[in-house]
Write a structure and sequence with these properties.
Immunoglobulin-like; 5% helix; twelve-stranded mixed sheet; 2 helices; elongated; 21 strands; 2 domains; mainly beta
């Protein structure tokens, strides 16, 4: 028999971490054998949200997710008919921004969008930015039978994963219903959308929607002050899925079709039923052959000790740091102690078979 107190401090922390990890619920993505890709846009080619799909021509066809990936798990077992409706979705991101960009295109033989309620052709999107899984709507709250409705909605619905009920097209109403207690997430500076089409209700035609959203690990009813954005980084897996709802009769009470990227239509309220998406690095064709990049962190202001981190792109073979105080280093990730307070110009020069590249930062390193 032992207690945490009987262990060394280090061993106690390790043991506690193991216990917590074992107690943490885990889940597998829906159909985890397939991981979809999220295209990384270069920082100088961020798509303009204007309803014009030309910004997306650089995205390889392997990123496109079409109608053939959608399913209907209801009793109707409807199949997509390209003569009736055909859709295409591409997803992107930009390194350094916690945003997901979408291009949704659809050809429909009957567009239904004349009413002001939920009866509208719809692209319903669910995102779980930290892939934590679990229910995200009040009707799926684990204690919904014992808690008051307010307690299953305001602190829960859409808080840890978000559902966007996007109206296609949207005319005379908001571009989407942010389904939960945080409608602010559909507005700037957390989201933006633009559409392009040339048809009237009941007509056929091609529809283009560009938009971006901000996924949140926490988006509570208090508003954005306490919200926590999901941090997006290369190779991270996120939970993502969508449904396409197609109304073919403006007077019908029900929907003519409801298809999902997930194999379960209840993914709209359960993040454990979402598909896995990976935030991809830049495509090789968009990556520079060599580019000097670096960052730094002041480890000890009193001693003026600074850690420099090489983040260069390309097959670097040599590094030459000039710390701006007449000293240099050929280490990849050097530590350097400055002898006096000042603002310094630090330069990194890297070489590779592709040539040389230099990056200087003027007075970023400022020490007391």
């Amino acid at each position: 028999m032992f207690t945490l107190a009987s262990l060394s401090s280090h061993r106690a922390l390790v043991w506690l971490a193991i216990i917590l990890a074992a107690a943490t619920p885990s889940f597998a993505f829906d159909r985890p054998e397939t991981i979809f890709k999220v295209f990384q846009f270069p920082s100088d080619k961020i798509p303009r949200i204007d309803g014009d799909a030309s910004d997306w021509t650089m995205v390889p066809v392997s990123y496109r997710i079409g109608s053939d990936q959608l399913t209907d798990d209801s009793s109707r077992k409807q199949k997509f008919d390209a003569k009736n409706l055909e859709v295409s979705v591409r997803v992107g991101w930009v390194k350094g921004l916690n945003r997901l960009y979408f291009l949704y295109e659809a050809n429909d033989n009957y567009w239904d969008f004349s009413r002001t309620d939920l009866h509208n052709d719809t692209f319903e999107l669910v995102v779980d930015g930290d892939a934590s899984g679990g229910p995200l709507i009040d009707r799926q709250h684990p204690n919904k039978d014992t808690l008051p409705p307010a307690d299953t909605y305001f602190p829960f619905h859409g808080v840890q994963a978000q559902n966007y009920h996007i109206f296609t097209p949207h005319i005379g109403k908001d571009w989407c219903l942010a389904w939960g207690s945080q409608p602010w997430i559909k507005e700037l500076p957390w989201a933006n959308a633009a559409q392009s089409f040339n048809f009237k209700p009941g007509e056929s035609g091609h529809y283009t929607l560009e938009f971006w959203i901000t996924p949140f690990d926490y988006a509570g009813p208090e508003g954005p002050a306490r919200a926590v954005e999901s941090v997006l980084r290369e190779n991270k897996l996120i939970g993502l899925s969508w449904a396409v709802i197609d109304y073919d009769d403006v007077n019908a009470k029900g929907s003519a079709g409801f298809w999902n990227l997930s194999s379960k239509h209840t993914m709209y309220g359960n993040a454990s039923e979402l598909r896995a998406f990976r935030l991809m690095p830049l495509e090789p064709s968009l990556t520079p052959a060599l580019d000097a990049r670096w960052s730094f962190k002041v480890l000890d202001p009193t001693r003026r000790l600074v850690a420099f981190q090489d983040e260069s792109v390309g097959p670097v073979t040599t590094w030459l740091w000039d710390f701006g105080d007449s000293t240099t280093s050929q280490a990849q990730h050097p530590l350097h102690t400055y002898t006096k307070a000042d603002h310094y110009i630090v330069t990194l020069k890297v070489t590779s078979p592709a040539g040389t590249s230099r990056r200087a930062k003027i007075w970023d390193v400022a020490l007391p």
